[in-house]
Amino acid sequence: MKNFSFFFVLLFVAFLSTATMSQWVQQTAPGLPNFPQPQVIFSPIDGDDNVCWGKNSNNSQFLRTTDGGDNWTVSTVNGAAGLEGSSISAFDANTAWIAMNDPSNATSGGIFKTADGGSTWTKQITAFPLAGGRPNVIYFFDPNNGVCVGNPRGGYWEIYTTTNGGTNWIPVPSSNIPPPLAGELGIENSMVYSGATYFWFPTLRNRLYRTTDQGYTWTVADSVTGGPSQIGFGFAFKDDLNGLAADFYPNSVITKTTDGGETWVPIVPYPSGLDSISSLFIVYREINDSYVITSQTNLGGNQMQPGTAYSDTNVYTWTQVDHILLGPAAFSDCNTGWAGGMNNLIYKWVTDPSSCTIPVELISFNSSVIGNNIQLNWQTATEINNQGFEIYRNGNKIAFVEGKGTTTETQNYSFIDKNLQSGIYNYRLNQIDFDGTQEVVGELTVYLTLPEEFSLEQNYPNPFNPSTVISYQLPVTGFVSLKVYDVLGNEVAVLVNEEKPPGSYEVEFNSHSDEGQNLPAGRQGLSSGIYFYTLQAGSFTQTKKLILMK
């Protein structure tokens, strides 16, 4: 899972400290112009400490590293002359998207994609086709599904989604988006992704919009950090429900949500570890359950300074580590992250790997559909002080599965979510230590489509030898019988004879009794010929022919 937060910055007079800190290592990106404020926004690759992309907020430049930042390549997006980068979303070392705005308003800028590491860029013309729009933020959940949000047009937010990597962008209907307030504008670089389908973006009216389905429908929360008098805010989520918002002007405020951003509560008193820096940008750092705040301004409720601070797991205690002037940080994992400095300076966060020990090493997390049930399966390689796993469905806790404590042996777990209706189900797996510390270790989305009518499919293969598969669908729960007969009407095999919930099923019919175990006792196998199989479920009955050819 990737969590990050960016925040558009009004240009204030800033303060730069030449102090260094153990976490930040200074790097350079030759080719970036001199500028008195951080100008680069980053998009690292989740779990990859070597690859990171960035974009310049003041022109059409982008930058990329494939060696952890030892060397940065700075170039321009072809076809984007005169445009400025609003937001970047990178998927791997080759693929990235940049949302560009046009400061002249002659066009709406647009979305540009590269699939060759930045050598060439293609403008995706189905998004923001009219002049005067402004793309603010873009994010891709995977190589195909993405969302891009722009400022309001015609009284509604201009939002697009794609399911094919941006080849086609589809505008979200205005009926799916709460209307903006008068004069309300979005904040560039400010979406936060947490989970398979959740996404948020903030506005300069202290509001936070949220989608739970990759951008197709939206809700909005007001007064995130105290009301419209607060200029803007940064925010970050550790999972679908829990997050923090940070604001610095005119008052320094940290607020907390536990319901996905619907309601926010101030952290009181204001954390002492933040009382001398401006709480401007905030990002969640996985594994050690910590938030990191960076800042590039010396304005705020108490004329605070730039700097960096990080929280402990309860978010009430913060440790300040420097007064370096930095833009928003973005992390590829607990150990590694990047933030922009002045001119061509880049800072890389480097942490002792021992401080990022993973309490549970997850090998896999997957699902299977069984009728109208969804079975979740996961496997761990090692566990340290593992109390167990909480399972969340669409943001709500539905189960707890006990862990194995401390073990170096492979462990297998499963849970069955029963009696579901057709729909989209987003599952999150939280691992909990015995001290109460928890971490998201797995997420997946399951699309469950239940049959609307009874059906019996033709077996495959047909003819067959020695086995074949028969599929059938049930729209309702009921007693089901699936039997095989010879041409004389004699029953030769019983494949199903029990109550079944609605769903799609497959059953194997094997003509050898020692393998299929569904032939009558004493029968040593069937001879070549024509057979029939009949499905009976309630008032539904259907028969089909199959051919055994030895």
Based on secondary structure, the structural category is mainly beta
Task: Describe the main β-sheet briefly.
Answer: 6 strands, antiparallel
Report the total helices. 1
Radius of gyration: 28 Å
CATH fold call of the largest domain: Methylamine Dehydrogenase, Chain H
CATH class bucket of the largest domain: Mainly Beta
Folded structure, characterized:
The chain is mainly β. The protein folds into three domains: 24-356, 7 Propeller (Methylamine Dehydrogenase, Chain H), CATH 2.130.10.10; 360-448, Immunoglobulins (Immunoglobulin-like); 455-548, Immunoglobulin-like. It has one helix and 41 strands. The strands form ten sheets. Strands 29, 30, 31, 32, 33 and 34 form a six-stranded antiparallel β-sheet that branches. A four-stranded antiparallel β-sheet has the order 1-28-27-26, with no helix packed on it. A hairpin with a 5-residue loop joins β15 (199-202) and β16. The longest helix is centred in the last third of the chain and has 4 residues, at 513-516. The protein is elongated, with a radius of gyration of 28 Å. The two termini are 51 Å apart.
What is the strand and helix layout of this fold?
Elements: E1 24-28, E2 40-44, E3 52-56, E4 61-65, E5 73-76, E6 84-90, E7 96-101, E8 110-114, E9 122-124, E10 135-140, E11 146-153, E12 156-162, E13 170-171, E14 192-193, E15 199-202, E16 208-211, E17 219-221, E18 234-237, E19 243-247, E20 253-257, E21 265-266, E22 281-285, E23 290-295, E24 307-311, E25 318-322, E26 330-331, E27 336-340, E28 345-350, E29 360-370, E30 373-393, E31 396-407, E32 411-417, E33 423-433, E34 438-448, E35 455-456, E36 467-474, E37 478-486, E38 491-500, E39 503-510, H1 513-516, E40 529-537, E41 540-548
